[in-house]
């Protein structure tokens, strides 16, 4: 019973779910897991850290610079204050202070101004009508009778203490005359010379009042007591000092009497109580009475007649000290300049620099940081959108290809990484489309190639079954021919499948190419003679050698020879030649059992590539068809008639066999003149001769 197989509809492959494009578009990643979301998070984090780090560094650097500048300005201001304080202590008025003010301004690079306590200008380093107004608050008050202990402690000379508010350079009536000062200086020089002879280093120090004194070098000034150098002569007050001390005592007694207290007798060092005895050679040092604020270089106390003193208590001591201080201020007031306001600032009128982190400035900093963050996030959104857009297009195109839709190309935005990815995807998509077309064509061609011999076999068998044909030897021969053709097609397909799967087995051994070409020519000689084609081998003896599978290599060369004989007209020629190309290569030589042409040269056995060429003088291949000659089932004659060609698998098998040997195959042709197929195989390097 004859059965024919119909063409049923293609069934959907099991286990495969097809998504529509609309559903694929909806299946998008959430923002927190998407590339855009991560890019935004990283950008915002980097921007926040950058802003915080920049702000911290700026604050630290600015604060350090401001502190350094403030420290430098405070030192310069203390020097200015000390210089003007010395001027006020030595002069009864501020007349002539302008030169000193301008000098201080030049040295410090600051603006220095002095005014009275009523803000009447005394001196100003900024002159002219364009001078900025003075700030409402003065930098300090210059008063030698009430010293600013903080600025005085940082002064150039380190003058002033926390207990004495009167500048020690304000000596008033205690200043010695030039004659008294010279006389005491001579005495002091004599004492120093005496001490030096005794091996005690000492120097003469002149105080603000002009009185010299001997200063022992070292930390034990009592060493001078054991010498014959009498230092008591320097402690005797002069007439002017006695007069000033008496006046000061009267002022202090008047203050005490107003409080209902008894008067006191002040010693030469402005202390009170029992006067200290004069130190003489050989006697131990006396007990020093309690001091009160006094000029640093006031004369030391002398031995004085004992006087009756009031009872000394803690309360009396405080009252006496207060009255002595008041008396000193009253006594010195006519010898020093009146208090003045000191203004120190930049030349532009600014005062000491500072760092004001007010709420307004804090708001400005926060606003600037927020603006930077907003710009960063905006730029990240823009850049991320441009980065993600082509990725979305690639994802959609890949999903459509997965669903079996027609492959489409995606736009290439540029030559960056994403653009190159899109271009590679387009190439892959186009290659996949070509492979799909080739697959469909191959299925059709295989069906056609198998249908022809099967149809012939079926037709002859049906005819024999119906009694229309006798199973004679010719009948059996025809069926055998069709079966052999069918077996040949199946073998070719099996070889291609094995080559594609990497399962094509080779058994390499040393092969003499000239001998192999002779075997191939002998196998096809009868067919060539029947077609009227001359078949020749043009390779000199012994010819090059290589390592290859001789069976597979004969199959590849045989396919080329079979095609060449088929497409060469009667009277044409097919030539086989082999030579070495590359290192130590020699040119091709013509020889062999089927030709009479010979070449001249020397056969070498060095390295290089063995080239096997099959050249015919047939009809040639058109230039447009030449790139496709190695494609499977490709034939220039689209009717696929057996009279004009084979199955279209021979050249495809040739390429796979050559590639399995690590070589390449190429074809060159000139339409109307002939074609040349060249196999390039790695040459075997024989071992060196001993």
UniProtKB/TrEMBL annotation:
Its EC number is 2.7.13.3. Residues 8-24, 681-690 have a biased composition (Basic and acidic residues). It is found in: Cell membrane. The keyword Manganese does not apply. It holds the Pfam family HAMP. Residues 385-437 form the HAMP domain. Its main location: membrane. Residues 445-685 form the Histidine kinase domain. InterPro entries: HAMP_dom (IPR003660), HATPase_C_sf (IPR036890), HATPase_dom (IPR003594), His_kinase_dom (IPR005467), HisK_dim/P_dom (IPR003661), HisK_dim/P_sf (IPR036097), Sensor_HK_Regulatory (IPR050736), Sig_transdc_His_kin-like_C (IPR004358). The chain crosses the membrane at residues 35-59. It catalyses: ATP + protein L-histidine = ADP + protein N-phospho-L-histidine. Keywords: Kinase, Membrane, Phosphoprotein, Transferase, Transmembrane, Transmembrane helix, Two-component regulatory system. SUPFAM superfamilies: ATPase domain of HSP90 chaperone/DNA topoisomerase II/histidine kinase, HAMP domain-like, Homodimeric domain of signal transducing histidine kinase. GO terms for molecular function: kinase activity. This is histidine kinase. The lineage of its organism: Bacteria, Bacillati, Actinomycetota, Actinomycetes, Kitasatosporales.
């Amino acid at each position: 019973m004859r059965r024919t197989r119909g063409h049923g509809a293609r069934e959907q492959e099991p286990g495969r779910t097809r998504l529509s494009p609309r559903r694929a578009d909806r299946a998008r990643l959430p923002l927190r897991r998407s590339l855009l979301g991560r890019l935004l998070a990283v950008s915002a984090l980097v921007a926040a850290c950058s802003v915080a780090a920049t702000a911290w560094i700026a604050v630290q650097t600015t604060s350090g610079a401001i502190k350094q500048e403030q420290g430098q300005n405070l030192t310069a201001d203390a020097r200015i204050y000390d210089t003007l304080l010395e001027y006020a202590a030595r002069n009864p008025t501020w007349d002539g202070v302008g030169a000193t003010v301008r000098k201080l301004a030049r040295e410090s690079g600051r603006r220095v101004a002095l005014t009275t306590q009523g803000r009447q200008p005394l001196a100003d380093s900024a002159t002219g009508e364009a001078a900025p107004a003075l700030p409402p608050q003065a930098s300090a008050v210059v008063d030698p009778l009430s010293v600013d202990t903080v600025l005085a402690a940082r002064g150039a000379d380190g003058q002033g203490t926390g207990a004495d508010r009167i500048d020690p350079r304000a000596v008033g009536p205690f200043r010695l005359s030039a004659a008294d000062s010279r006389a005491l200086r001579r005495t002091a020089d004599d004492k120093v010379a005496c001490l030096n002879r005794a091996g005690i280093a000492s120097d003469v120090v002149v105080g603000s009042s002009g009185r010299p004194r001997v200063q022992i070098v070292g930390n034990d000034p009592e060493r001078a007591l054991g010498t014959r150098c009498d230092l008591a002569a320097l402690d005797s007050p002069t007439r002017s000092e006695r007069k000033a001390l008496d006046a000061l005592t009267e002022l202090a007694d008047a203050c005490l009497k107003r409080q209902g207290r008894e008067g006191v007798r002040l010693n030469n060092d402005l202390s009170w109580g029992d006067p200290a005895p004069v130190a003489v050679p050989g006697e131990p040092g006396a007990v020093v009475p309690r001091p009160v604020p006094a000029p640093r270089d006031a004369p030391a106390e002398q031995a004085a007649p004992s006087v009756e003193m009031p009872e000394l208590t803690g309360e009396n001591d405080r009252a006496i000290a207060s009255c002595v201080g008041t008396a000193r201020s009253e006594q010195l007031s006519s010898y020093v300049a009146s208090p003045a306001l000191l203004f120190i600032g930049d030349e532009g009128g600014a005062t000491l620099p500072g760092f004001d982190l007010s709420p307004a400035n804090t708001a400005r900093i926060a606003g600037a940081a927020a603006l930077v963050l907003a710009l960063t996030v905006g730029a990240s959104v823009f850049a991320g959108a441009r980065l993600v857009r082509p990725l979305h297009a690639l994802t959609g195109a890949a999903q459509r290809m997965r669903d079996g839709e027609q492959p489409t190309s995606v736009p290439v935005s540029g030559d960056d990484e994403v653009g190159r990815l899109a271009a590679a995807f387009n190439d892959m998509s186009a290659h996949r489309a070509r492979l799909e077309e080739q697959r469909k064509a191959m299925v059709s061609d295989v069906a056609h190639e198998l249908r022809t011999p099967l149809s012939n076999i079926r037709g002859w068998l049906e005819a024999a079954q119906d009694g229309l044909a006798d199973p004679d030897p010719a009948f059996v021969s025809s069926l055998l021919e069709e079966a052999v053709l069918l077996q040949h097609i199946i073998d070719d397909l099996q070889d291609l499948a094995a080559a594609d799967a990497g399962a094509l087995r080779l058994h390499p051994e040393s092969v003499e190419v000239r001998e192999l070409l002779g075997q191939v020519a002998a196998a096809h000689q009868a067919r060539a003679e029947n077609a009227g084609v001359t078949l020749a081998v043009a390779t000199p003896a012994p010819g090059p050698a290589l390592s290859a599978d001789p069976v597979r290599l004969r199959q590849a060369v045989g396919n080329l020879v079979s095609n060449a004989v088929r497409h060469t007209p009667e009277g044409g020629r097919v030539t086989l030649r082999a030579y070495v190309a590359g290192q130590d290569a020699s040119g091709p030589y013509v020889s062999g059992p089927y030709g009479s042409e010979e070449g001249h040269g020397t056969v070498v056995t060095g390295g290089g590539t063995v080239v096997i060429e099959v050249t015919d003088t047939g009809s040639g291949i058109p230039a447009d068809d030449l790139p496709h000659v190695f494609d499977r089932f490709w034939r220039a004659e689209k009717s696929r008639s057996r009279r004009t060609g084979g199955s279209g698998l021979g050249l495809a098998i040739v390429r796979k066999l050559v590639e399995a040997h690590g070589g390449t195959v190429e074809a060159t042709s000139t339409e109307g003149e002939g074609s040349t197929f060249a196999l390039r195989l790695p040459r075997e390097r024989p071992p060196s001769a001993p």
